[in-house]
């Protein structure tokens, strides 16, 4: 976490960017739509790896699926619980 003086400095920088270039500031606040596609693709790949690993009795492939799905879930919920200033 940031210290109070660092947070205030960051807020001043954000306000200055928003005042001088609102379009750029808006783009910084929004998550990239392309990353959503990548994350969904990773989640689907993880589910497929888990299913194939279980059906083919391949523990390593099933483990890769579980780790992939777990990473997706942690990343997804960490972005929801730590907003980027919206």
UniProtKB/TrEMBL annotation:
List the Pfam families hit by this protein, alphabetically: DUF3040 (PF11239)
* Record InterPro entries: DUF3040
Mark the transmembrane ranges. Answer: 37-54, 60-78
User: Which keywords appear in this protein's UniProt record, sorted alphabetically?
Assistant: Membrane, Transmembrane, Transmembrane helix
Per the record's keyword annotation, is Membrane included, yes or no? yes
Specify the protein name: DUF3040 domain-containing protein
Which species is this UniProt entry from? Amycolatopsis iheyensis
